[in-house]
Amino acid sequence: MKKSKILSLALMLCLLLSGCGNAVENTGNTEQKNQTVPSQIENDTAGENESAADTQETVKDNTEDGQVIHTSGADVSLSDLSYQTSDDNAPVVFFTSDISSEGLIAIYKALDWNPTGKVAVKVSTGESERSNYLRGDLIADLVQSLDGTIVECMTAYGGNRAEIAKAKQAAEDHGFTAFADFDLLDEEGEIEIPFDGGTRIDRAIVGSHIDNYDYYLVLSHFKGHSMAGLGGGIKNVAIGMSSKSGKVYVHSAGTRTTGNIMHNDQDAWLEALPETVKAVSDYLGEGRMIYISVMNRLSVDCDCDGNPAEPDMHDIGILASFDPVALDQACVDFVYAAPDGGSLIQRMESRNGIHAIEHGEEIGLGSRSYRLEIIDE
User: What is the pLDDT of residues 211-249, one digit of tens each?
Assistant: First the structure.
C-alpha cells in the first residue's frame, strides 16, 4: 500500500474516533435543508442558512442544565432552550404541557392580566376544516371567561376568506360563532397607523374596527409557514390584523398596497412583520396586548393553507408572555430542542424565519432572551 493511502486511512480513523458521526449527521441535515423552496418564493433562501446548531446562538446565564421539562410528547432539557436565561430582568414566558381548556385558562391566569372594557381575541379562523386552526373545544372557555369577541380580517390571496360573506361563513363553519361573537375588523374599511420606528414600513394598515376594543388577546397556533418559515404571535398580528391592502403592504415590505403579495427580498418582508406589530402595539398602548401560543398540530404549513402537511412531530405545550419576541423565540427554541423537529426546522431555516424575531428585537418590540416559568405542578 502506498504511503499516501496509509496516511489517508489514518486520517479517516482519527476523524471517526473524534466524533465524525456528528459531521455525518450534520451533513444529512444540510441535504434536507437545501431542498428547493416552492416556486412562489422568489428569493430562495434554502441553502443560505447555517446548521441548526450554528443558527441558534446561545445566551444562557446560570441555567440549571439538568432540569427537564416534561412536554406533551417528549422531555426537553432546559439547557437546550438557547435563549432561556435566569436573568431576572428578562421577560417571562410561562409554559404548561397541558394542552387543554384547563391548561389554557391556567396559563392565562399566570400572566395576571386584568383587562377592563371590551376584549378582542385575535385567532386565525382557518382556511378549511383540514387546517390546523385552534378548535373551539380548546379555546371556548377562555374566550367566554373574558366575554371576548373573536376578531379576524379578510385574506389578500383569495381562498375561502377573501370576501366579507365568505370570511364570516368560515368562522361559522369552523365553530367560532357557536361560543363567541365574531367581528371582521376590516368589514367597514381600514385605518392607517403612522410608524417611524422601522426601516421597511412607515405605517400599519389595519381593520377599522381595531378601535372597538380596549384590549387584545393574541391567541396563536404556532406552526410553519410557506413564506415566513414560521407563524406565531408576531405574524398573527402583522398579517392577521392587517386589512387586504395592509397585507399586501406588509408582504411587499412597504412598497405597495395592491397587486401580488410576493416580494423578491425575503429578509425585507420579514422585517416588515415585527415593524407592523410595533406600530399596532404602540398605538394600543402598553399592556393592552398579551400573547398566548399553542404548540400542537405542528405542521410545516400555516392555518391559511387549506390542505396542510400532516404534522410529523409531537405536541409540546402552551406558552404565554407580554413580549411577542420572547414568546416566538421560546417556541422556536422548543422546536430546536425537540427530538423530532427536523421538518419544521428545515421549513424555518429555508425561509430564514428567525429573521423576523431578530428584527423584532432590533426595533425594540421585545427581547429574544427570556426567563421560562413552568406552571405545571
Answer: 999 999 999 999 999 999 999 999 999 999 999 999 999
pTM score of the predicted model: 0.84
Mean pLDDT value of segment 115-141: 96
Strands, sheet with 317-321, edge to edge from the N-terminal-most edge strand: 181-184, 149-152, 119-122, 215-221, 289-295, 317-321, 92-96, 371-374
Confidence of residue 65 (pLDDT cuts 50, 70, 90): low
Residue 8 lies in a domain: no
> What is the tens place of the pLDDT at every residue in 7-36?
333 333 333 333 333 332 333 333 333 333
* Residue 325 belongs to domain spanning: 48-374
| Number of separate domains in the chain | 1
Average model confidence (pLDDT) for the chain? 86
Q: Is the pLDDT of residue 53 over 70?
A: no
Alpha carbon 13 to chain centroid distance? Answer: 44
CATH code of the domain covering residue 279: 3.40.50.11440
Q: Is residue 36 part of a domain?
A: no
In a domain, 1, yes or no: no
Task: Assess if residue 31 is contained within a domain.
Answer: no
CA–CA–CA angle 204, 209, 212 (5° rounding): 120
